[in-house]
Each structure stands twice: as structure tokens, then as C-alpha cells.
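Q: C-alpha cells for this one, please.
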Amino acid sequence: MNSSPLPLLFAFSVLFGPTALAQTTVTPPPAPPPPGSETIVLSPFQVNAEADTGYQATNTLDGSRLNTALRDTPGAISVFTKDFLDDLAVTDIAEMIRYDVNSEESHQDAEFSGVGNQAGNIGEGAGSTGNASNFRTRGLVGSVSLDGFRAVGRTDTYSVDSAGSTRGPNAILFGTGGAGGVLNLRTKTANTHRNANQIELKIGDNSTRRAAVDFNRVLLKDKLALRLMGMVEEKGSPQPHKYTDKVGHTIAAQYRFGNYTSLNVSCEDTRTKGVSGRNWPQLDSITLFLQELNAGRVVWAPARERYETLNGAVVGAASGVANLSPRSVLVYGPDLGPPTLWEGATATANRVTLSTATSIFATPQPIVPESIVPSGLVTSTGGAEYGEVEFTNLTASFNHRWFENFFMELAYNQSDRSSDAIIAQNPDLRADLNYRLPNGALNPYFFGNGYYFSQGSYLRNIRGNDNETFRASFSYDLDLGKRWGRHRFAVMGERHINNELFNRVREVWAGAPYGGLPEAAANQVAHRRYFQIGGPLAHYTPGWNVQNVFASITQPSAVVRDRSVTTTWVPPNFRGFDDEITTDSQLFVMQNYLFDRRLVTTLGLRYDQIDTFGPGSVRDPVTQIWRRATAADPGPYSGVGTSNTWFESSDLSATRRSLGAVYHLNPHFSLTANFSNGIQIPERNRTVLPIERVADPYEGDGRDYGLSFSFLENRISGAVKYYDSSSLREGGQELVQNVYTNPNNDVMASFDYYFRQAGLVNLGATDPIRSVEELRTDYFSGADAYLFDQKSKGWEFETIANPTRNWTIRFNYSYTDRTRTNVLLEGEPWWAERVALWQSLD
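A: Here is the predicted structure, written as C-alpha cells:
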């Protein structure tokens, strides 16, 4: 986990960390309420963050949606106040979770491949798919919400008042989200009582520059206020190429119709661009050859101008050598100047490079050893993994008290995230063993001259994730006295509409000049860069278009008809989608304070109806490029299961529950227990067996048992908890292809070939397959994801000491044991059916 820069503050609070950072904050002290002013009654759906001065939070909405004291909340919740975030110079979620209990950044390093599948690119970062984010809690995926709404893509904290981290699934707080938990960001609201000004400047190493402003103005005393917030940031990295630029602004307003009625509106626009790259160097395709060379089992033969074995044979797989044979390659030198195009002799011949190919280490292929490429000091994909994100958010909430103890909140939220980003995939480190080029000229980048190379082909993710939520909530507080206790009830109705667009496109040569389909391997663009180990670390990358990674490149060609080729972007398969998911929810919450408030129970019941709709994909009959299907298309359609319609639709209803209790043994110690479940939407571009459609939403389940403590009027507090969390029937990637899909498709293709050789095109009506065409359509499988259960259990300990307003001491420890079980069991009955089918066709 990377270290976080900690600020040196000029406000008498000094913290030390691995990175020097200077911060100046100008914040006038809050003025006391004017004498004689009327008391404002807050709705139970609101928390007054201004009451949490310093580092100590007292109340939260994150356990029950009702304003509840933290000590009465059974769930595992940690709250970060504004002062805490400011004084630690926390400006985004990645920095925040470093101080959270049992949370960590995720780089997809938990996948079977070991080194991660894709980088956490700027355009692929928090909330890129569904409502997920790039962090784990308790070993399971976590989610982010904004003021209790699902919002994808919010990462900066310039307009955040506080953050509540709820660990484990929570059916009350959110309808769909990660089984690990949810990080809920509470945004700043306009204050109708007093003006306030805050200017924040930060200067740090790695060219870090940040400025943020926060101005609150009372326009009508105790009636109308306007708050303007803005931020601009430039942040570099110790690793070359990596940087982040952000700019954002938020306008918030509040109008109070009376002491019991208010309207809050907030509108935000934040834009981010930069290069995030990866935290590991290239994959290892060099060490086996180097080992054989250093051991003397491979030698250079000057007369034959080649490397060979001791018996005079050309080097091969046993020496870690193979042919790298793309149809064409864009070649860059170390300075990354204009590339040249290397092609095969004809449009159908590959351009062959004899190169190193394997590692001395076991599979999966590991990263290059630090003796060759130092970890943490290079960016293996260079500046190619560039991304741009725009996030907009509009929230409006109307709170009103109808009569004594009966409150209402009407709320609306619309959050939109759009991004465009390059995914460079994991490049290999190789060496070119060709002494001469195909035209007979000397190869300037021959390995013997000290050169290595890295080669990459690029995918581009164009994404949109729009969320719209309508919500109505009502609460009632019933106090039956000391004997029968106090009871709070709340109901909520909500409609959430998620429109998610996913266009993954691959860089290819336009018009399929090298034959085959537009996305075929022969037409894919390969960027190769040669460099020398020991040279500038910024050179350790593949090549890319330094002018604009998205722009087209035109190169003269010696072998295609038009004598030039131009790059473009086309879908590599039918996995793109443009889906609408509508979730209608009803929620009931009850809190009970019994036995003179010594026992506090929380019960939540939630019912969700989830409806999905999305078009399939079809090859355009003219361009042969995959695109979204329409009702006018004749088919066949992909990505829609076995149905014959041009779209896929599904509906699912589920009831979830949450039950927790806190028993205060005495003023200092309390016993807590909590059970809750939730549900998460899977990735929409992955399909599973048996019918090759998107998996159903998968369920999260969690239990907590613990002891919490508080001393010295809560100046010292904390908890120790045992937890057991699970994520059931979750979706993974690609394993199914090697196990079931590819073998099935090979067998069906073989039947297709031999049936046609025998002249059997139309089969009998009693046969399981009536037409040979079905062998490559209905009976080919495109499933590329698998299902599994994931369980995590362990211990968490957290203690927080706030001896004064400006001092905090925090210590936490967690131990998690996570296991993955029931992997790909859905494939077993599917495979048995296929075996029976093959036997009937034999």
C-alpha cells in the first residue's frame, strides 16, 4: 500500500509522514448563535456535521438512515470528520481508506492471474462498473455513496463534510452495493446562520499543487444561504509519466421556510484527467534466455549471425526463445519520436521477430525481477494509460415536520459519470535477437547492442454511468416513557434508474487491410518501443501516440492496396452494452430504546424489484463491425442468451433484512451484535453458463459481534469485533473459457467440418440438432465469466483517543481470512449436457 502525504500545518498541529507537504488554511472560528435566535429543529434524516468539532464524531445516519448516536449503532462504522480529513491533507478516497479499519486499495490483485487484470486507470477508477469502487473492505469489494445515494465516480473530498465507513453489507443503508461495505460521503450544505470563508493551499513534492476555496454567504438571515466551493489540483508521482489533474466546483443553497421546513440543493461538476498506470513493472519474458546465456548454454555465433545452443542448433523454446509474429508493428526508439511501420512481406504475411519469450519462474507469468527493472520506479505502460472523467451531481432534499415527532424528507439525486480511457494491458519485457532486418540492413535495436523492448496493443473504454433517484421518507418518534421505552419508525419509497454505457474498442488498422474481420489479430495495432536497461526509467514502456493517445495515426504501407494505413477503434467483441436498470425499493426501519436506554435494537426490512433492459449486439452487415442491435436488425444477436429477441431483459425481486442490538453493560462498555445482507449488480459485460447471459445480482451476507468501550466522556473510544461476511454467486472473469467454453467450441467446430464434408447439412427432425448452422451459432458458447462464493471472516480492533480538540491518536488492527469456494460449479451440468449431445451426434 502506498504511503500517504501528511501535511505540516501552520495551525499548531504538527504531523509527520514520508512526504513533505505544506498546507495553509484560513478558517474563522465559528460564531455562537445570536442571542434570542429560534432553535432550528433538524429532521431525523439529517446530521449536523458542525457539531462534530475536532476529530470526534458523535452521531451518524449510516447505521439506520436515522440520526443515531454512534454508541447506539450496532454495525461496524467509522466516521471521519472534516477536521480529521483536512488535517491529514486527505483529498480523495484512496488517501482516506488508508486510515480506515480493514480497508485497502484494490488493483485487481485478488484475481487468479496474480498481477492484476487491468490497471486502476483514471477512466477506470472508482465506480467504473455498477456501483463498485477500487477498494476492498474485509477482503470484499466496497462501494461508494454520496449523501446516501448511489453515485459512481466521486473521489475528491473538497466539498465533503464527513465520511462514514460501514463495514459489511447493509440492507438499510443501500439497496445494491459491495458486500465489503460502503463508504458514504456527506457533502457540505449552505449555512443560513453565519458567513464563513476558507481558503486552502497545498504544496508538496512530486509537483503537487492544490488550491481549494469554500465561501458561505447568508443572503437572508436564518432564511437563505449560498455556498460556493471550488478546487484545482495538479499532482505528480515518483514514477515517471503518472499524474492527475483535477478541477471542480460546487454550488449549494439552503432556504428555510421555517424552523421545521428546509430545502437544500447542491450541484457539482468535477473533471479529472491523467495517467495512473500500474504499480508493477513489465511481465517477465526475458529471464529464461538470460539464464541460459549467462550459464554458457546459449552462445553467439558471429559467422552465422545468430544465437545458438552448444550443439549448433538455433535457439528455441528450451532457451526461452520464440517468434513474435504480428502482421504489422509500429516501432519507436528510446526517445519515443515518430514511429516507423514494420510489415510482413505481403498483406497476409506476418512480420516475424525472433525474441525472448518466457520466464524462469512458474506460471502465472510473474513480473520482471527487480534486478532488471526496479519495482515502484517505472510505469510499465508509460503515458498510454491516459483517461478523462467528468462527474456531475445534483441533489435536492426537502425536509418538513408535519406535526410533533412526524417528519418527512423528499429527495432527488442525479449523478452522471462519463469517461474515456486507454487500457494498455500488461506489457512484456523482451529482447530482439535478430541481427539484421528483413531487408538485410543491420538491426539497430539488436539485443547484442544493449536493447530490450516492450510491446503493447491498446483497448479504449468509453463509459457512461448515469444514476437518477427519487426518494420519499417518513419517520415517527414514539416515547412511551421509562417503562415501555422510546421507539422510532421510518419508511422509505425509492425509485433508482441506472443507465450504464460500456463501449470497449480496440485500436486496429481501418478497413481490415490485412484481411479478416475488422478486429482480427492481423489488423490490430502493436506499439513497440526499444530502450536500454540502465537508461532513463521513463523509457521502460511500449510506444504510444504522444500527441494524443486517442488520435489516428497514418503510415505509408508497402504491401496493402492503398499504400497507406490509418488507425481507428472498433469493438473487439459483442460485450459492449447500453443497459437500463430500474430498482423500486420499499424500506421499513424500527429503532427501540428499552430498559432506560440500556438496550437499543435496530430492525430494517427492504424489498427491491430490479428490472433490467439492454440491447444485444450484431455485426453490421456492411462494415462487419459489432454494434448495438435494434428491432430492425434481422439477427442473429449476441449477448442476449438463447432468446430470439434483439434485447435482453430480466426481473428480480428480493427481500433483505438487517437486525442489530446494542446492550450497554455500564457507561463504559457495551455489547454489540448485527446481522445484515445486501445485493450487488454484476458486471454487465460478462456472461456466464449455462445460457450465456449476464449473471443475476449476487447476495452479500454479514454478521458482527463485539464489545465497544468509551471513557472520559468519549475522549477514548473503540471496539473489538468478530465478523463473518460472504458474497454469494459472485462473478469472476475468463476462467470459464479455458475450462469449458473453448473445448466446447473446438468440438462443435469439428462436428461442423466433418458433417459438411459428408454432405450432411440438413439433419433429421428427430435429431437434437436440425441444421449444421446451429453448431456454430446456438451451440457455440461465448460465456467468459464464472460464478463463485467468497467468504471472509476475522477480527477488527479500533481505538480512538481525542485528549483535546486538536489531538487524535488512532490505532487499529484487523485480521481477515478470505476463501473462494464453489468456483464454476455451474459448468458441471452444462458440460454433462454437452457430452451427451456429442455422443448423440457421433
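A few notes: The two ends are 56 Å apart (CA to CA). The chain has a mean pLDDT of 85.
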